[in-house]
From TrEMBL:
This is TraB/GumN family protein. InterPro entries: TraB/PrgY/GumN_fam (IPR002816). It comes from the Bacteria. It comes from Thermomonas aquatica. It holds the Pfam family TraB_PrgY_gumN.
Amino acid sequence: MRSVTLRRERAIEGATRMRMTMLAAALGSMIALPLHAQQANMQSADANLPAQPLPADGIRTAATVVVTGEQPGPGLWLVRNGSHDLWILGTLNPLPAGMQWQSKQVEQVIANAQEVIKMRGVSLKADVGFFKSLMLLPSLLGARKNPDGKSLQQVVSPQSYARWKALKARYIGSDGGVEKWRPLFAAQELYQEAMKKSGLDNSKSVWPVVNEAIETHHPNVTVVKEEIVIKDPKPLLKEWSKTTLDDIACFDNTMTRIETDLDAMRARANAWATGDMAALQSLPPAYQWEACSSAITEAGIGKRLGFGDANQKVRAKWMDAADAALNKNAVTFATLDMKDLLGANGFLAKLKAKGYTVLAPDE
């Protein structure tokens, strides 16, 4: 009986902690992607794909079949400083939902590594106890709703709402609760459901495999993060409930991505899973999330919490960690999102500019 009670208590505590992250989701989850992104590349992600006729509901149906089963993933980039090697795995989201990633190269590198660098990014932490958090649940549950009880139809344009209705019918269904959500959260829900029905998973991560290798071989782990601690969430929740966000562009751009980019997302996911770096780099770039980021970071509440320079701080911390590793370790392993890794402003370019040798996979 006691074990059953403990399981129930842990389940309640877990659910409460999950709800406590809703504020972080409000201010963070939709900017977790863009805080790691480079300058927006606003070209259509299907610009290099052959034109296809649209179906009656105006939504292009993705045709690319998503791979399943065990897949090797891409090869690793190598940054070298004399006899000191930093191996970097470029990650991607979303990935094929039915894929099991298993990389022998990653396991071998971690087996010989003295250090693993984890990019945690920017996060929010509500510094409250378990029972106090229970008292905040009603406010947290309302954090994603529009101020003054307005519906989506009342806050977006008729054209946007017509697009929303068609996409919602296809990917979400008849759920009426989402109609009261802020455009930013409605867009997030639509995106997640579209991923599920397209054979993709935005929560798929390389970290279960990496963590297992870390537990087996015990390298030092350096976590790169910028944490914003909220001592008292109550005033913040009250302010948030009355704040109108400039998130219409986020809403519209997310719908555009779902309408036009699903096939390209599947192709990118397949290329990553199968380790086809040539295909991965030849595909149109993934859509950037700056409009969703700005809806939070440019709002008064975001500026007051210090989100403005959070990305720069995290990037500087990662470069410091990489520099230190390349000067002290024989072998270091790290992961970075592909969009942070590549490009003129990517970490590989910055490491090369510092005089390190940078080798692409298979070079």
